[in-house]
Amino acid sequence: MSPTDPVAGSLRFRPHAVTKPWGGYELARRLARVRGQGVAGLPIGESWEFVPGGEHASVIEGGVHDGRRIDDALTTPPPVMVKLLDSATDLSLQVHSRKWEAWLILASHPGAQLYSGLREGVRRDDLTAALDACDSPEIRRCLRSIELAPGDFLVNPPGTLHAIGGGFMLLEVQTPFEETWRLWDWDRDRQADPERPLHRDEAMTALDETSRPALLPPTSRAVQAPGFEISLPAREGGRACLRGPGFEIDIELGTPLGSTFDLRLISQDVIRRSE
């Protein structure tokens, strides 16, 4: 193993903007750190703000470790992924077999809705019939829709059928598992975008038809996640914090929520010396 040094202070990271067919221009409009990222002229759906490893592991920004990947610099990066999302239109309907994820709404258009779980009384066979008919309106009728406003927080455990609707900007916190089983993509042309295949068999196998997560009560601003705890900002704005063994991630979200973004990692881990 390479020689190591203690972490000095906090670490910040470069955003990684990802173009999506459902993305918009709100992230780039609101946040200077995202502006100029991605492909010029194309909508940004996601800005990956902290990724602990893999192909797109976060790159340190500023300080003596500027330009180093987090999984090269730290011996044990925190087991969490943090994204900003901008949904101009609906995301695909999907299920994760292992991934836990949560959404903090930063901004929303009036009447914007997302889907989390099957509607009460709907069974797996009802959803299967709507999918067999390729009937998007009927598929929507199978789903539990929720209208959310800034400051609302929703957790989707593994197995939860879900889709973010159009009209949201949100903070997504998740465990860093890659698998996403896409069940339906709202009649988007899959031939025009072969990177968005459907995974119906895998999604239906992973689906927990009883999962209908509840919104976090307005008075409760702390949530236990797998391997870490989330402290939420006040509904009008402020700072979120993710704490786990040996690390703390502070996220300044501004007042009102989403008016700014600044993520800092404070770690008790050690920094590997550059070769």
From the N-terminal CA to the C-terminal CA, the straight-line distance is 11 Å
Question: Superfamily at the CATH H level?
Answer: Jelly Rolls
**Shape, principal axes of CA atoms:** globular
Q: Give me the side-by-side strand order of the main sheet.
A: 2-3-4-11-6-9
Can you give the mean pLDDT? 91
N-to-C SSE string, H for helix and E for strand? EEHEHEEEEHHEEEEEHEEEEEE
Question: How is the topology of this model organized?
Answer:
Layout: E1 4-6, E2 16-24, H1 26-30, E3 44-50, H2 70-73, E4 81-87, E5 93-95, E6 101-108, E7 113-118, H3 124-132, H4 136-142, E8 143-147, E9 153-156, E10 162-163, E11 168-174, E12 181-184, H5 200-206, E13 222-225, E14 228-231, E15 239-244, E16 247-252, E17 262-267, E18 270-272
Antiparallel strand pairs: 1-18, 2-3, 3-4, 4-11, 5-12, 6-9, 6-11, 7-8, 7-10, 13-14, 14-15, 15-16, 16-17
Helix pairs in contact: 3-4
